[in-house]
Fold this protein.
Amino acid sequence: GQQLNQSPQSMFIQEGEDVSMNCTSSSIFNTWLWYKQDPGEGPVLLIALYKAGELTSNGRLTAQFGITRKDSFLNISASIPSDVGIYFCAGQETSGSRLTFGEGTQLTVNP
Amino acid sequence: DSGVTQTPKHLITATGQRVTLRCSPRSGDLSVYWYQQSLDQGLQFLIQYYNGEERAKGNILERFSAQQFPDLHSELNLSSLELGDSALYFCASSVEIQETQYFGPGTRLLVL
């Protein structure tokens, strides 16, 4: 099935460092979302973006909806050990409400 | 806690069998979505229901079916199970179509 191109696939960082990950698509999306998934749990919504060019923050997290509507990035500042997990981007199509997910970014934070 | 509940949390069964996964959406949510998460395919949309009616279909096999009941809970039925059906199955719900989707904790299915 169709998937978004999410990078990087994995990241190993030191506590306190900033992190950046992004998603690109060949399709236009009406909405971009970022989820975090912990082992054995369901994805938890972090940030939702509804307008091209929109920049939204949620605590140490900042995400942007690309102006072409085909990309988005997520930044995490001053990482902490509890940031460990898999981060997924998801796009919601204009014509429907199904979510198309990226492959995920596995984040490891070393104390 | 998203407010979406799924049962059972784990399910182990044999090839050829049939199982039913259950989802209760958040209070007030009319739309329910099913997703499958496997190692090789990632998170894939299966099917969506809105207020009891099927709304959209994704990569759902013909051996799989779903329904949403008048009380808005949903069930995903998987039949003639194959080894490759082993995966995490997530339910998500939203207030309306196009609104933010909130995911349940998932059902981990293992087909032996």
In short: The first strand of chain B starts at residue 5 and ends at 7. Residues 16 and 81 of chain B are 5 Å apart (CA to CA). Chain B touches chain A at residues 2, 4, 31, 33, 35, 41-45, 48, 55-56, 58-59, 90, 92, 94, 97-106, 108 (CB under 8 Å). Chain B has a mean pLDDT of 94.
